[in-house]
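Sat 14:20. Reprocessing the chain from the morning session after the first attempt stalled halfway. Input below, unchanged.
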Amino acid sequence: MDGQETRERLKEVAQRLFAERGLDGVGVQDIVSAAGQRNNASLRYYFGSKQALAAELLVDGARLIDEHRQSMLDRLEAEGRVTVRSMIEALTLPLLALSERTGQATYIRMVANLQLNQRAFVREALEDRWNTGYKRCFAHLAELLPQVPRPLLEQRFSLAGGIYGNAVWAAWEAAQDAASKDGFKSRLWSTPYAVDNVLDTLQSVLESPPSADTLSRLNAGGA
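Finished this time. Tokens:
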């Protein structure tokens, strides 16, 4: 393989290993061997370190997702179709589309693993960049859902667009990956309504009226 092919092969196998085992569970030798290389120096030559490779993988995907998301938002705004549902779709569909690109079939699972176990590393790697579309979605939702107090909406947005979303779409991605490799079709994800039904639940997370208990605790906290 020439240099570019070697580099891309290292990235693809590293992303899969990070998705399966996390950053700490993968060694340089694991990546090099899985990529069919003989010398650990190949990874250091192309990336400098395992951490730098993981950071590049995070940025690669985040950039593509943000570009797709902003394109969607531009179109929705121009057509006057900014709704709670369309914002949920703008948050989600670019992520799912990325997973279908060559070499990106494990990106969601890698992010979910790193967010769970290496959150500070993820923040440092992304440097508060490639999230403009994410912030635009929240700004629209804050206008669309004035009945949900801002602190509650911020938490719900983090759940729907991050913690809940990462977990559920990682499961979706794993099912797509298994189907493409060995033909196994998940009963949960093989129905034609599966993705839309999950989007319904994420929409409900944002729109659900806060309970009296939640509002009481919110007010007691002085928010």
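Residues 150-182 form the longest helix (33 residues).
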